[in-house]
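Help needed: design a sequence for this.
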C-alpha cells in the first residue's frame, strides 16, 4: 500500500514537473521572452503563440510517443535494447517519408499528409520484415529480433542513400537535414497532425497495457492466462507502427528516446505497465522538450538539430545498457 502511494506521488511529481518545464521552455530561445512581453499585438506575442508554443507541444507529443513505443517494444520482444531504431521501424518510416517527398507527393488524403502515409507504410514494411525474420528462427529469441532489426535498418538506410544520390541538390540537402531529426513547427497544423496519430496510437496501446505484463513474462504464461498472444502482438505492432510513422513523418528520426526513457521510468516508478506507461509519456515528452530547447540556445542564433543531442546522450546510455548485464537482468 505504501509502495503504491509512493508510485502515485512520483507520477504526480512527474506530471507537475512536465507542466512547469513545458511552460518555461516556451519562453526560452535565442531571445528569452517574459510573461509581460507577450501582450496582445506585440511581435513577442506572435513569436510565443505561433512559434514557441506549437514547437514545444510538438516536441512533447513526439517525445512521449517515442518513449511509449520503446516501452512496448521492450516488453513485447522481452529485449531491453529494443526501441524504434534498433528494430528498424524508424528507418523504415524515414525511407517511406523520403520516398514520398522525392516522388513529389505533397498533398493530403482526408486531411492526412501523404508524407505521413508514406512514413507509416515504410514503418509497417520494416516491422513486418523484422517480425517475419524473427519468426522464421524462433530458437534464437531476442538476439534474432535485435539482429534482424539492425539488418533491416541498414537496408532502409542504404535505400535512403540511394535516393539521396539520385536527387537534386535541393532535395538532397533537405533529406540530410531531415535525417538529423528536428522539431519544425510553425503554427498549429503540425501539432494537429501529430495529435491525431498520438491519440489513436496511445489509445490503442492503452487498451493492451494489462496484457503487456503478461507478455513480458513469456508467451506460454500469457497464453495460459487467457491472452490471445498473436492478436495482442499484431494489435500492439500496428499501434506502435502508426505512432512511429506519424512522428517520424513530422519530426524526422529522433533516436534513443525510446531506448532511454523506459529504463529511467522503471527505476523511478515501477515495472507495472499501468504505471510505467504514463511515466514514459511524461518523462519522454519532457526530455525531448528540454533537448529541443537546448538545441535552440547552444549555438544561437544557429540551431542544433535535436536528433544530434539525443544521440549524444543516448550513445553512452546504450553502451551502459549493453555492458550492464546484471542490472539489465534485474529489470527484465
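Sure. Designed sequence:
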Amino acid at each position: 500500500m505504501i509502495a503504491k502511494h509512493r508510485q502515485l506521488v512520483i507520477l504526480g511529481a512527474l506530471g507537475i514537473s512536465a507542466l512547469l518545464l513545458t511552460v518555461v521552455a516556451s519562453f526560452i530561445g535565442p531571445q528569452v521572452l517574459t510573461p509581460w512581453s507577450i501582450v496582445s499585438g506585440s511581435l513577442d506575442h506572435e513569436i510565443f503563440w505561433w512559434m514557441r508554443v506549437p514547437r514545444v507541444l510538438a516536441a512533447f507529443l513526439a517525445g512521449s510517443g517515442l518513449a511509449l513505443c520503446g516501452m512496448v517494444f521492450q516488453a513485447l520482444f522481452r529485449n531491453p535494447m529494443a526501441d524504434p531504431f534498433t528494430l528498424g521501424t524508424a528507418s523504415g518510416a524515414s525511407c517511406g517519408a523520403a520516398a514520398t517527398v522525392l516522388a513529389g507527393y505533397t498533398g493530403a488524403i482526408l486531411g492526412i499528409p501523404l508524407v505521413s502515409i508514406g512514413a507509416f507504410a515504410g514503418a509497417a514494411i520494416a516491422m513486418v520484415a523484422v517480425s517475419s525474420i524473427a519468426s522464421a528462427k524462433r530458437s534464437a529469441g531476442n538476439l534474432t529480433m535485435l539482429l534482424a532489426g539492425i539488418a533491416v535498418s541498414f537496408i532502409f538506410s542504404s535505400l535512403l542513400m540511394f535516393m539521396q544520390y539520385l536527387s537534386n541538390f535541393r532535395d538532397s540537402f533537405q533529406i540530410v537535414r531531415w535525417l538529423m531529426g528536428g522539431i519544425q513547427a510553425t503554427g498549429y497544423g503540425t501539432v494537429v497532425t501529430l495529435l491525431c496519430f498520438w491519440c489513436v496510437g496511445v489509445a490503442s496501446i492503452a487498451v493492451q497495457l494489462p496484457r503487456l505484463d503478461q507478455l513480458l513474462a513469456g508467451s506460454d504464461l500469457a497464453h495460459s492466462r487467457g491472452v490471445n498472444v498473436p492478436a495482442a502482438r499484431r494489435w500492439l505492432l500496428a499501434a506502435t507502427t502508426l505512432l512511429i510513422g506519424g512522428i517520424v513523418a513530422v519530426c524526422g528520426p529522433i533516436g534513443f528516446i525510446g531506448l532511454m526513457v523506459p529504463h529511467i521510468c522503471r527505476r523511478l516508478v515501477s515495472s507495472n505497465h499501468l504505471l510505467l506507461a504514463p511515466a514514459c509519456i511524461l518523462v519522454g515528452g519532457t526530455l525531448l522538450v528540454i533537448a529541443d530547447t537546448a538545441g535552440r540556445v547552444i549555438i544561437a542564433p544557429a540551431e542544433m538539430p535535436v536528433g544530434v543531442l539525443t544521440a549524444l546522450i543516448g550513445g553512452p546510455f546504450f553502451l551502459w545498457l549493453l555492458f550492464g548485464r546484471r542490472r539489465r537482468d534485474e529489470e527484465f
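The first helix runs from residue 2 to 25.
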